[in-house]
Design a protein that fits this description.
Number of helices: 5
Distance between the termini: 43 Å
Strand content: 15-25%
Bound molecules: S-adenosylmethionine
Radius of gyration: 16 Å
CATH architecture: 3-Layer(aba) Sandwich
CATH superfamily: Vaccinia Virus protein VP39
Number of domains: 1
């Protein structure tokens, strides 16, 4: 390995998960794929109460289920549907992660789409508990991913800073449009200010 820390953003994201998610209870993986992100979340958030998983691919749900069952994780709710339908989630949410794009090695046509992604994010933001964290990784290197990233950036940039803080993690010296990760935190207390959502 040429780089030990900044070879990709995973080490940094793991650090954030470990540090800031200790007390989070209701977690959602919006694009579970093969379950690698779900596993990283569960390993870093020992006090969770429930983890919901979405994927439109049956195979992805099966892979995630078999991975997490091999670690005996409990209270996992598998949703083989699009993440713009939040109706199965009973509680308000403390943490959600989107790893957008397509699953490496699978059908590239089964890629996340601008409209459903935006609808999902917009619905999610009004279902959050105070102090909730959201992570969104985009892949602007392919056409749909570039459109998705642009729209997400514009939307997140417009959020009221009294309610959300948003940062962007990005390799600024890499060629070929590398991935970007957006991290949002919802303010911890209600001070009576109205949201612009
Ligand atoms: C980059 S992969 C996710 C990788 C995964 N988190 C992992 O750790 O293996 C993106 C996933 O999003 C899924 N996907 C695409 N559109 C979706 C939608 N509307 N709702 C939920 N999942 C979707 C794809 O099937 C694919 O598995």
């Amino acid at each position: 390995m040429k780089y030990k820390f900044l070879d990709n953003t995973n080490h940094f994201i793991d650090y954030l998960l470990k540090t800031f998610l200790k007390d989070k209870k209701i977690l959602v993986d919006m694009t579970c794929g093969n379950g690698h992100d779900s596993l990283r979340i569960l390993q870093n958030v020992p006090n969770y109460e429930k983890l919901y998983f979405y994927d439109i691919q049956k195979k992805a749900i099966e892979n995630t289920r078999s991975l997490l069952e091999s670690y005996a994780y409990k209270n996992c709710i598998y949703l083989n549907k699009s993440h713009d339908d939040l109706s199965d989630i009973e509680e308000n949410i403390d943490f959600a992660i989107y790893n957008l794009g397509y699953l490496p090695g699978a059908d590239k046509k089964l890629v996340t789409r601008l409209d459903t992604t935006m609808s999902s994010i917009q619905q999610l933001l009004i279902r959050l508990n105070y102090g909730a964290i959201i992570m969104i990784t985009t892949y602007p290197g392919h056409e749909e991913g570039s459109l998705e990233d642009g729209k997400i950036y514009d939307y997140l940039k417009s959020l009221d800073q009294k309610i959300f803080n948003v940062i962007k993690l990005e390799f600024i010296n890499q060629k070929n449009k590398p991935c970007k990760t957006y991290i949002l935190e919802k303010r911890s207390e209600d001070d009576g200010e109205k949201s612009n959502l």
